[in-house]
Specification:
There is one protein chain. The chain has a 6-stranded antiparallel β-sheet. Strands 6-5-8 form a 3-stranded antiparallel β-sheet, with no helix packed on it. Strands 10-11 form a two-stranded antiparallel sheet. It is globular. Helices cover 26% and strands 37% of the residues. By secondary structure, it is α+β, with helices and mostly antiparallel strands. The protein has 5 helices and 11 strands; from the N terminus they run ααααβββββββββββα. Helix 1 runs antiparallel to helix 2 (21-32). The protein has a domain at 4-111 and 138-171: Jelly Rolls.
């Protein structure tokens, strides 16, 4: 039977591989053994030594529960718990955005509408963009596995209450992700904490 260790062993042996096709097969096997898989996730979340609360955080749309990060930080595993509709704030997953990394996602509960976009950029301009057009809209439900490349722009809508997704996050390919404002055609860059810490250290050195 495929287990969480099957997944981590594969990721350890393919550290430099950003292709998520094989990950999809493993996630599919995990889904078909969902009861055992969810029991394993329960044990990870409950074990004090894992210090899940120290590495997890809240966003406008969901909670990111940290499951595992390998020693080289070349991949991370997360459980995303989406908020009920009356608690969701505008932003984050619900607006067009990309990521610093590619990832694969398995829907364990609920579902949502998934939108993919085509971005038309302005050369040498990272503040504004020329156009953002909708490429496709799909309904993703229980058991759906999908992958997103770090350069793809996407958003979520119609998120069902109590939606849960298991995320395999690959190594970052850049220091920032981007959020795209359709109305004003503005780009907002969100930098990683690693990048921001380096900037903070530089500021302190100047004081």
């Amino acid at each position: 039977m495929v287990t969480l260790k099957t997944l981590t062993d594969y990721l350890e042996s393919h550290v430099n591989n950003q292709n998520n096709d094989d990950i999809v097969e493993i996630l599919d096997d995990l889904y078909h053994n969902r009861l055992e898989f969810e029991k394993l996730l329960q044990s990870v979340l409950k074990k004090p030594a894992n210090k899940v609360h120290l590495y997890s955080h809240e966003t406008a749309t969901h909670y990111k529960w940290h499951i595992y990060t390998n020693q080289q930080q070349s991949y991370r595993l997360w459980l995303h718990e989406y908020k009920k509709k009356d608690l969701v704030r505008f932003g984050y997953a619900t607006v067009p955005h990309n990521h610093r990394y590619s990832f694969a996602s398995l829907i364990l509960r609920g579902g949502f509408k998934h939108e993919l976009y085509q971005i038309e950029r302005i050369p040498n301009n990272h503040h504004t963009f020329k156009n953002l057009s909708l490429l496709e809209t799909s309904d993703f439900e229980l058991g759906k596995i999908y992958t997103i490349d770090s350069n793809q722009v996407h958003s979520l809508s119609n998120i069902q209450d109590d939606t849960l997704t298991f995320i395999v996050e690959r190594q970052s390919t850049r220091d920032y992700s981007e959020e795209f404002d359709l109305k004003n055609k503005q780009i907002t860059r969100h930098f990683s904490f690693e990048w921001k810490i380096a900037q903070l250290v530089s500021k302190l050195a100047l004081s």
